[in-house]
Structure formats: structure tokens, C-alpha cells
Amino acid sequence: MKKLIATIALATITQAAMAIPSWIGVYGAYQRHDGDNPGTFTVLMNEDYSELHAKVGIKVGEGAWEEHWMTHTGNVDGNSIWEYAPGAAFPGGATVEYYFHGWDDFGGNTWDSDWGNNYSFVAQDNGGSIVFDGGIEVSDRLSDICADNGSAYVVTGGSNELSLTVRSLDTGNWSTPVVIDSGEWFNSGQVAANGDDILVVHSAFSNSTAYTSADGGLSFSAPSVLPFGNIQDITAFGADGFALLYATRSQSYTPPHSAALYVVTSADNGASWSSPILLEENTSSNFFAYFEGEIGSNDDGLFVGYTYMEADSRGFGDADFKVAQSTDGASWGITELGTIEFPRMNTVRMAFLVAESDVFMASSFNGVYSQESWLGNPVVWRYDGGNWPETLVPGNGEAAEIELSKGPSGEIIFFLAGTWTLEPGYFVSNNGGASYGSKTLIPVPAVLANSTRIMESFGSQDAVNVLWLGFTDDYQQKVIWQTGTAGSSAPIEWVGNTYNWPANGEIDAGDNLWINTHTHPIGAAVSVKVVYSTDDVNWNSAEMVLGGQDGDSDWWHVNLGSFAPGTTVRYAVLAVDGVGDDHWDSNNGQDYYATVNAGTAVQWVGNVYHWPWDGEIDAGEDLWVNADVWPAGAAVASYVIYTDDGANWYSEPMFADGLNGNNEWWHANLGSFGSGTHVEYVVLVQDGVGQDHWASNSGANYHAWVN
Predict the structure, then answer these.
(1) How far, CA to CA in Å, does 233 sit from each of 192, 271, 487, 651?
(2) Closest CA to 629 of 542, 692, 681, 541
(3) Is 163 exposed, middle or buried (0-12, 13-18, 19+ CB in 10 A)?
(4) Alpha carbon distances (Å) from 200 to 81, 87, 164, 510, 654
(5) CB 564 within 8 A of CB 571
(6) Per-residue pLDDT band at 663 (split at 50, 70, 90)
(7) What distance lies between CA 626 and its chain's CA centroid?
(8) What pLDDT sits at residue 186?
(9) Cα–chain-centroid distance for residue 30?
């Protein structure tokens, strides 16, 4: 009978809390869409219970309307919060229309559609701009380059000399070249750096020669012969490790052709090497069959991106794209990304980027003999926790070479190098590779006039570096190094419309204080920060985030968090543009001020209980904790502090949900527990004058037992 009575009581309480939702929308700092591409859609409803649901309807350009389920992500002021984040970006420049629909299982419906007009925004182009310098001459015989610990290591080769030069990426200074070896033809050196340990490998057809340095390239060991031919790439990994990727192929001119791809590793900085590990081997009856690959490493281990290509005697063929991954260099797992067919007398180019936690694989056609209409978009696959989503880069895929690089602000940059007629350019992604902006042309270094191509690119701390290979007017081969920095080259014309939210007079203790500002023109500001103080002595700064566009200006905002009652926050805004100039908005030298209200003190916390009652709590059933606070409106935050094992304590926020007589009623759902669990808890309430108030059952704490 008690259980029946308890159930009826619960039904009464639940029904009282489950009024039909009558309001849907946003207020305060909440935005229906955050301005990013694709960004996040957010809406609030004035009820919060398990039978409540929400969807967002989205229409892109002239496409069809599609509804998407939204996820319940929290509660604020008793309102439920719902969010939806699309899995792929919208096309840059497309008009996106949307509305929200909320309902419950009892027949209640509510819409937020701008009074039937629908909301809309123009999707950002996720690209960006890189400003390149004029370039400097490196060498006419550059073989390879790598970067590590703020330096770039450049290997050059010639008819009788193999050398290493180090360039500081911080100062741009170059070291004196160190001659590694001499006396033969050196034209295919490769380099990898692991702190002060440097490995240089010179590849030949049947075997290769390795040279190691333990002092950052100041001196090198005697050469050691490696029984590996056609070394395609080398990399450093771990504390003392280097890895080689090499391929073999049959040398006959008639099919069948065999080809294989191997990895070998060294755990002692190149002094000794493991036995070769076979990644893949194929035999083909086609006219051409071979592997092409690159190897890289980050904290997740070693990665090999490679393609296996076959083509018949007419030049038609296909390329399989795959990535192999290993944590130790001994055992490997292989993921197939896709297959690309190429038309007659063409090949497919590949690029591979391993940087920090990022791994990217890219492909594009070398379409010298094709019409552009025959060719598809370049493709970039990105590593996403074991998945490899595919992104199409705008435009057709004609390229002599392609490169991937991580830009100075974390951008992913796809370089498409030209042939004799194609203008070289790059595509930038500012959302981790989810989409790429339109093509931007690269100014070819003036000294190069003929047959130019990009041969290398890599990112450093504050720049992206590009190495060009080409010929001068008198057909002298040159290698030119260009450095590019991020951002617009346009100056900021003004920064203003600065304000805080909530507005003065409405800022209570516990409220998050948001600072907002605007810069003009769109895209001119590279960074914006707010500089603030609470005592006019100690000053802090916080980077502001681009929230979207407001008319013809960029809107920036940042959450400074909450402050104690009576606090005055003094602040000004600093914006920096693409040409490096500072622009301040300091309210004409007077600064801006945001003052937190003095607040109200809590006088009493009580009527603490849990539901279901003891004896009625079953395993898997949600446990609710309730408390009353007086006077109403005085509490700014409340928490249940609890343990379910007597050793580890947890905190769960409580939410205000109306009045219980003259008191304000707060509650929290602790979730479910296993059979026999003993839950011990207390309640903490914080008020508007900065005081903590505990309800602890006179020091004995409160207790709940699960059946």
C-alpha cells in the first residue's frame, strides 16, 4: 500500500512540474546559432522533463527542408537546453534557413520560427588568407627538409657533395653548411630530426646509406649501408626512434609486375635497424604497378599514408588510398580510405600530414593530358578517433604536386601546385578539415619563370613554409623558400559597439559576465582580447571568440565568469589586424565598467529530503534530492555533495523550480545506483552576498539506501 501511495504522490508531483511547454526560444547569452560553419543550433524551452522533445528544421539554399533531432544538454533557470551540431559544414556563402519545434508526449507543441518567417544566416567560408613574403633562395640542389624544436634541417646534394644546413625558424638565421659526405652523386637525400639526433639517408636503387648525428647536425657518423632500396620517406618517433618507409617493384618492362611496401624501425637513433615489416604486397598483370607513401608520427604512434596504383598500357588505372597505424612500429593496422580511378595518361598525386594529434591524407589528379571536366575534386581524409571522414576540396583536381600543411593558427592548408598552365593556389580549413574555403592564388617567387612547382611545405609555430622548385629566365634551376603568415592584410577601420551582458543593474553574483565588441571590416581582425581589472591594480586579459557577423562587422565575445557581490569590473578591448596594428576601444579613454549587484543573503535552508523514500528506492531508479531555501531569489547556486562508497565525494548542481509556499524549491537528479548502495549527502547553497550555507542534518548528513 505504501508503494501505491508513493506512486500516486509521485504522479501528483510530476504532473505539477509537467505543464505543457508554452515558450521556446533563447535569451541572454544563448544564441540560436553560434555563427560558425556548421556551428551549433541551440534553443530553450520553459519546461524540463523526460517526455519533452525538440527538433530543428534546416534548409540550405534552394534545397529541401530537413528536420534533425536535438539533444537535451542541460537546464538553466528551470528551462531545458537543446542543441544540434551538424556533422558537416554548409557550403560557404550559402543561405541557411531554420526553425525550432518543441513538443511533449501529452500533446503540447510550441514553435520558434521568427513568427513564421524562419531564421537565417549566410554560412561562413571556412577558408582564410595566408600572406606570403617574396621568398629567399635556398639552393639549386635541395633534396629534403624537416622541422623539429624550432629549427628546419635542410639537406642539399650535388654532383659530389651531401650537406646539411640548419635554419632557425624563430630568427631566420642559417648555420654554416656541414658536409656529410662527398665523392659521388648525391641527389636524393632525406632528413629526420628527433631533438639533437639527426638522421640523413641517401637513397640509391639497390641500397641506401645512413648518416647519424647526436649534436643537432654539427657532426655526423661514418656512413652505414642499409639494404633497402627506394626509400620513400623517413620520420622520427618516440624518444630514440627513427622509422623508414621503402618500396620495391619489379624492374621488367612486361607484366606481371610485383610491388611491396615495408617499414623498418630503429630504437637507438639509427645505430641498428629492425627486420623489415611488410605492410602490403601485390602482383599485377597491368602495365604499371607501384606504391607511393609517406610516414609520420605523433603522440598516437606511427602513421603511413600510401597509395597503390595500377595502370594499363593505355594509361587508364586506379589508385587505392590507405593508412597504416602502429603504436610501436612492430604491429600495424590498415584502414582503407577509398579508390580513385584516373583517365588515360594521368596519375593521382597524394599528400600526407601528421602533426600533433592530427593526421590527414589527400589526393588529387595530375591532369596534364586531360580536360578539367574529366577530373573530380581533390579529396582530403582526416583522422577522427578511428574514423576517416572525407572532405571534398573546391574545384577540379588538376595538379603537378599537392602538399598538406598545418598553418600558423592551426589551419589545415591544401596546396595545389601548378603545371605549366595551371595557376598554383591553396585552400584553407579553419574547422579542422571539415570544409575548405575557395582557392587562393599563391604569388610565385619573381625569380622563377618556368616550370615552377611546390616541392615541400610545413607549418611552424607562427608561419607556414613553402619551398618552390623552378627555373629562371636563363633556365637556371632554383629552390626558393617562402614564409606565409596568417590573417588578412587589411587594416581594422574601427572597433566599437562594446558592451557587457547582463547589463549593469542586472548582474547578480553567480551570473556569467559576457563582454561583446565589434570590428570592421569583416575579416580584418586577427585577434581580439578584453583587458580587465577588479581593483584597478592587477590587470588580466582574455581572448575573445568570433561569434559571427553583425551587418558589416565581426562580432566578438568572451565569458569572464562570475564575480563576487558588489564587484566592479573595469575593462577595455584590444583588437589586432592583419598588418599588425593595435586598435583599442577604451570608451574614449574612460574604460567600461560592469558592476555586480550587492545581492541578498540566504536566511534558511531546510526541508531536505530525497525521493523515492527509503524502502522504495530500487536499483536503476533515479534518486532525486530536494531542498527549500528562504527567502526566494536569494540563492545563486546550490549543489548536492554526495558519496556512494563512503570514500569518493561528488557534486551535482541543483536547479530552482518554483515556490513551495514562501520558500524557493531546489532539486537535483543524482541518477540511479546499484542494489544495496548507501548514498550519503549534504546540500550546499551559495547566496548573492558570497556566503555558503550548508544543510547537513545537524552534522549527521542525510542518507538514502537502495533496495
Answers:
(1) 9, 18, 32, 51
(2) 692
(3) buried
(4) 57, 42, 9, 59, 61
(5) no
(6) very high
(7) 40
(8) 73
(9) 23
Residue 704 has pLDDT above 90, yes or no: yes
One-letter amino acid for residue 394 of the chain? P
Residues β-bridged to residue 278: 262
d(C-alpha 534, C-alpha 591), whole Å: 13
**pLDDT tens by residue, 246-276:** 999 887 778 899 999 999 999 999 999 999 9
Residue 475 backbone dihedrals phi, psi, to 5 degrees: 65, 35
Q: Which of these, 688, 635, 681, lies nearest to 657 by C-alpha position?
A: 635
Q: CB–CB of 57/67 below 8 Å?
A: yes
How far, in Å, CA of 517 to CA of 395, rounded?
A: 36
Q: Is 362 exposed, middle or buried (0-12, 13-18, 19+ CB in 10 A)?
A: buried
* Confidence tier at 609 by pLDDT (50, 70, 90): very high
Task: Kindly give the pairing relationship between strand 525-533 and strand 655-660.
Answer: unpaired
Which amino acid is located at 268 in the chain?
A: D
Place of cell 658536409: 179
CA-nearest of 564, 565, 567, 586 to 575 is 586
Q: Show the cell assigned to 180.
A: 656529410
CA atoms of 668 and 653, how far apart (whole Å): 7
Q: Which residues pair with 202 in a beta bridge?
A: 189, 209
633 Rama class: left (phi>0) / alpha (psi -120 to 50) / beta: left
The residue-averaged pLDDT of 46-59 equals 91
- Name the β-bridge partners of 627: 666
- Helix/strand number for the chain, H first, E second: 1, 56
pLDDT band at 9 (very low <50, low <70, confident <90, very high): very low
Q: What DSSP string describes 657-691?
A: EEEETTEEEEEEE-----TT-EEEEEEEEEETTS-
For residue 22, what pLDDT is reported?
Answer: 87
User: Which residue pairs, CB below 8 angstroms and at least 24 apart, start in 227-231?
Assistant: 228/262, 228/264, 228/276, 229/203, 229/204, 229/205, 230/203, 230/205, 231/190, 231/201, 231/203
> Residue 205 is inside which H or E element, if any?
none
Q: Which pLDDT does position 367 carry in this prediction?
A: 46
Give long-range contacts, CB 8 A cutoff, 24+ apart: 427-432.
Answer: 427/127, 427/378, 427/393, 427/394, 427/395, 428/126, 428/127, 428/128, 428/129, 428/130, 429/126, 429/127, 429/391, 430/126, 430/127, 430/128, 431/36, 431/37, 431/89, 431/126, 432/358, 432/382
Residue 108's contacts (CB-CB under 8 Å, 6 or more residues apart) are 20, 21, 22
Q: Which helix (H) or strand (E) element contains residue 271?
A: none
- The answer to whether residues 500 and 515 touch, using CB atoms and an 8 Å cutoff, is yes
pLDDT in tens, 538-569: 999 888 877 777 777 888 999 998 888 889 99
Across residues 211-239, what is the average pLDDT?
A: 90
Write the burial class of residue 147 (CB in 10 Å: 0-12 exposed, 13-18 middle, 19+ buried).
middle
Which band of pLDDT confidence, cut at 50, 70 and 90, is reported for residue 339?
confident
CB-CB contact of 182 with 160 (8 Å): yes
Q: What is the phi/psi pair of residue 274, to 5°?
A: -75, 170
Tell me the C-alpha distance between 589 and 609, whole Å.
54
β-strands 197-203, 208-213 pairing: antiparallel
Describe the strand order of the beta sheet including 142-148 as a list of residue ranges.
Answer: 142-148, 151-157, 161-168, 178-182
Per-residue cell: 577: 589586424
3-state secondary structure of 447: coil
pTM (predicted TM-score): 0.59
- Please choose, from the candidates 455, 447, 454, the residue with its C-alpha nearest in 3D space to the C-alpha of residue 471: 447
